[in-house]
Request: fold
Amino acid sequence: MSGAVGQSEEQACEAFVAWLDRRVVAAGRGDGLERLEVSPSGTFWLGRLACEDEVRKGAADERSERLDPCAIGIRLRPAAAPSWSLSVKVRARAWVQDPKDGPDPDRRWWRSDLVEEVVSVLVGAEGGSFGGKQLADAFAAVGAPGLSAEVRIDVEDWHRETELVVQLVNTSPEKPPGLKDSHLYETQIEVSGLATAPFQLEALPDSFRYDRAVPAYGVNVGVEILASGAFCTSDTVAVQTSRPQYWNGVYEQPDLSFETLASDPLPELAKLVDALAAYDDAQWSPTALDTRQAAQAWTTAMRAEADRSAVEVFAELGRLRAGLELLRTRPEILRAFQLMNMAIARSARGRGYSAWRSFQVGFLLSAIRFLAEPDDEARYVDTVWFATGGGKTETYLGLLLTAAFFDRLTGKAMGVTAWSRFPLRLLSLQQTQRFADALAGAEMVRKEEGVGGTQFSLGFLVGRAGTPNKVVPKPEGDEVTPDSPGMPDRYQVLLYCPFCRDENLKMRFDRERWKLEHRCTSATCPTRGQALPMYVVDQEVFRFLPTVVVGTLDKAASIGLQQAMRGLIGPPQKVCPVKWHGFTYAERSKSPNGCLVPDCQGGKVLKPLPMDAKRFGPSLRLQDELHLLRDSLGAVDSHYESLLDHLQWELCGTRAKIVASSATLTGYDRQIDVLYQRQGRVFPQPGPRAGESFWTTPTTQPLRRFVAVAPRGVTLEHVSDRTLDALQRCVRELVDDPAAVCAEAGVEPRHAAMLISLYGTDVVYGTTLYDVEAAGRSLGSNNTVAGINVEQLTGQTDFDEVRAILERLENPEDDFAERIHVVAASSMLSHGVDVNRLNTMVMLGLPLTTAEFIQTTARVGRKFPGLVYVLHKIGRERDAQTFRHFEQYVRQGDRFVDAIPITRRSRRVLDLTIAGVVGARTLMIREPASRQRLSTPAKLRDYARNSGMTPAAEAAEVARVLGLDGAEDSVHREQIAEWLQAWFVDLEDPANKATFVSELGPRSPMMSLRDVEASAPIHD
Ligand SMILES: [Zn+2]
Ligand SMILES: [Zn+2]
Reply:
């Protein structure tokens, strides 16, 4: 196999991954070792079997039996009635300790020769034990007398059908005379000669999509079917997935290059829609479903489910057709779409791609109607379901730029087109950079094509500990001043210049303009040294209202506290006459004329808004990682989403279109209803079969090899350390002796340097910060390989450091010894970290949600074949379950995703959010309408009296805003009424000590949506 002529990079990677896996499994089992200094039972984690007596004695529960089991086995369904005849080939070894004066006193443990015995079994319905004497003799023959084992057959029939459990059981005594270790090692069984029928996986709602047959189940092991038809146990469960391709080869492929869609998009888009129509007809027509129903013996329920899916599929086709028709008939929509393509072409230049994937264009077509019919389309939330594959962010950006150009072409010359939100801590710098790149492309196109309005720009609006809310002239509290430590460099957000990609950016605080600026230092940059159109300080975002605001979800809370947040949902007040001061908001003691620049000398006479105030409302709100909006965070956000809708409606008479991305489809319609009080639509509709749709089809190219490990007898941490140690040892051998390793692994030596780069950095992923830190620490001490450089990437890692680590990962040091060898990461890694060099991962236990599993493992093997070890915390029931169904878990992960727990009717959450709704209504609606300051209780009191505000009326309005005005919400309405009673009492009380309006009432508005404990479950 070695030295095959013309081995491709991918083939080399595939062979190397297989070799790495063989080596890791060998390290786990102890293959190939002759002698050992330390006890093998404290070292090896695969293939070992404890003795039955010890397991029985040590613990009576199933949990500890899983931790160091005494049996491995295969569960089968015999095709015929008893009795049954079968052969069971047993393989095992022993480790024996020499006396102190033995031949090698430093390494007293030696490994026996292989025991390999075929046990013949003829068994009836009562089951039985076989081969005991035969196996005991065989152990004696290899120098381990006293060890014993048997093949045990259990017959079970409580599952309706008869099942055989064929097991190898270690029956050795706990202390065999003359032996120090009663474990068996490197155990394996092979069952042949029995006719079997497959198990049928339990029918789930959409089971018509899946192959439900499972030939056999392993007991404490995986099962492979050999070429001979025999069932063989494997120490790990390996599942190889294949790389999808983004076009279904049956149909003529349209040219979806950015260039073509920029110049002449209609013919190619028509081809795409026609191909989809033909596919849907071939797969989903009643005739097609009849055929499948007959061939696959669908139940009536399965057919009904398929029929329902077909309705959705044809509705989706209808939306694409409507989108295409709009491009044909509405010149400004066509023009916006073309300009967007020109912009994306620019931002993609030199990055190895120049065309859309078909599903991306499909989504754009299906969603574009919101430009033509914004009111009608705002009733729906369109969700991109990205199990489909990579390219979600680009899909967003396509939609976002189309909307931005459309706004400009239709008279919205400034202000925010889209506010894009990520859940807490999940907005990465790389992700932000992609937004900046797209907008820079759009800005260049805007200029060249003479599209009017202010320049396209990006705002970065993140919660606590990100970038400053504001910059103040003199030190006060923890506010940032131009001279604060680390200013201005520590707030660099961009990784490189989005216009010319030069990495030498310089941060600068411009005192005259009172702006924190990114500048590009390249002499050839089109920005010519001007500040990049990028705003990272909250107040600058409000002053300049960038075209796109990208940020974290928690920031929405500011709407109840900060008047200047108004620019994100509606018009600002006016414009400061001083150049570079920007939009103004309500007057406050620190901003007497409403200008947010400290000590503004612009005076009281401000300039009017240069555009119709109503057009300041954004066209789009985007929500990334929708599935994470659950529990209390989901509940809180549902209230704030309603508030945003309410404010924009009051101020502009419009509703923003909401677009989201989600990793799961389970229950998304209910989640959308709870969160946004709108109807959910998902794109793309799942295909007729799992893993296959119009938009993607599987190929033969390897994507990721998932290896499930159920550690035995040692800790998970030990296994993680040893696995990483083995992986690092392999790569170091390749560095030191490429010829030998390449020959052994079956790769051409010319690929060695590439393989060292692609497989030389391992990720160890922990679901808790504690796990991640422990993994990082223990690697330093518990390894046989010296000089492993470990870096951590968690939510706690500073921006600067993240940037530096990403930089080193992208551009590794020449000398392997200086590179990062292991990245210890938390879920922070799973969002927007796209490094093609990360191809091996060790997962410490299953993540809490399947969505996290899918997303996290997607970080490795992005371009080249990946290898993922999933170390199961096998004592936990959920991990044990998943280990048993690991193949289905990997291949059908999306159906294992639990429905998202969410409600908007949590009284505990309502208690937190009422203040924000009342505060926002005061700041955003009452204050501007009153044309006076309402920032102090005294002023608001006067206003309330004069305008006839009452607790009852305000309570009714708050209930309506929050969608808690239905018949079943009387308890909530009462709660709101009581809250407002208390608020009015405070307001009416001249002796009340509150300085600010926000201090009135039972509690102040939330500072951040994070203030609610995200993990606490919430109920109606
Ligand atoms: Zn530049
Ligand atoms: Zn000013």
Q: What stands out?
A: The two ends are 62 Å apart (CA to CA). Residues 497, 499-500, 502, 520, 522, 525, 527 surround zinc ion (ligand 1) (CB under 6 Å).
